[in-house]
Amino acid sequence: MRTLIALVCLCLPTAAPAQDGPAGIAFVQAPEQSSGMAIGPTPALAFEAAIAECVAGGALAADCLPTNWCQPAGWSVDVFVQHVEGIHWHEVVCGLPEEAVALSVAAALCNRDDRPWVALCDLTQVYDPQGVPQL
Fold first, then answer.
1. Backbone angles phi, psi at 131, to 5 degrees
2. Residue 111: inside a domain
């Protein structure tokens, strides 16, 4: 009987250990509707919170698509881009080592010499490593 109990105990799932590393950052987008960002210890938790923010902005959860995950979060930039034909979207880059690098990445993304099909490009937000908006 003890052997059976020991075997059953070995087969039962156990809780995953908590993460010790730095927090990560998750971004989701619901095209033409809303977006979300959240900091968390795991992709699953951060994306869940980012989707909740996206839904609070007016989208359905099913429309809030995960786009970026970086761990450690680092500095992040969110750039609005509009094509010359009118369609538009956001481009997010995360995990950057410092604010100056984040700003230079945004400038490079908006360089129309390299992307002549871009009609409009604007830096919409910079996030610090704790996910705090800087603009």
1. 85, 15
2. yes
| DSSP secondary structure, 30-85, as one string | ETTTEEEEEEESSHHHHHHHHHHHHHHTT--GGG-EEEEEESS--EEEEEEEEETT
Residue 43 in domain? yes
Nearest partner of 39 among 64, 78, 79, 75, judged by Cα: 75
Show the domain range for 120. 21-127
In a domain, 106, yes or no: yes
Residue range 54-71, pLDDT digits in tens: 999 999 999 999 999 999
Q: How many domains does the chain have?
A: 1
Contact 64, 29 (CB under 8 A): yes
- pLDDT tens-place string over residues 83-100: 999 999 999 999 999 999
Please state the separation of Cα 35 from the chain's center in Å.
10
Tokens of 54: 């996206």
Beta-carbon contacts of 14 under 8 Å, excluding residues fewer than 6 positions away, are none
Cβ neighbours, 10 Å, residue 50: 26
Predicted TM-score (pTM) of this structure? 0.83
Domain assignment present for residue 15? The answer is: no
